[in-house]
Amino acid sequence: MTTTLLQPSLRPRLHPGLRPAPRPSPYPGLRAPGLGWLPAVWRRAATWKTVLRFVLLGPLIGGAPYVVFLFPIPFAYAIGALPALLAGWLFATWYHGAGRTPGWAWRATMGAMSGAATALASAVPFVLLAARPQWFMVWVVALHGVPAAVVLALLQRPARPRIPRPVETGPSQRPV
Fold this sequence. Notes:
- This protein is mainly α and 176 residues long.
- It is built from 4 helices and no strands.
- The chain has helices at 45-62, 73-95, 104-129, 136-155.
- The protein is extended and about 70 Å long.
- The mean pLDDT is 76.
């Protein structure tokens, strides 16, 4: 017996009164909104894998000029983890957003733009909170963050286009 798209499901259905009761919440009256309010691109695992790659490898690449000292590596994470998170989030939102397959030039451009935007956004509060603002800090953060974002963007594998799986049909619907 074959099922078609027009036939109802053959799975047995429980009567609404026979369904198991939902588990009581440890916090009555408190409900989480779920992830439905987020854009679809932020609900994909591939997006967060890209963000995690930026967070784990971004400070290491940005702090690579100081690797001979070995002491500043923890400080590279302390200073660079939040900017790397933001840069990864910006890049992953663009990269996994519309199902496109960008080439290396677009990935490098968007990596540089996300690194620069994040460097500016993360260094400006330090500049504004200082008694005598020194914009040199913005350039120092950008000098380390932009190349790291470009390298990570180029290491990103080109996304394969999503091809919908064909629907299997029964023997009566197959072409002869």
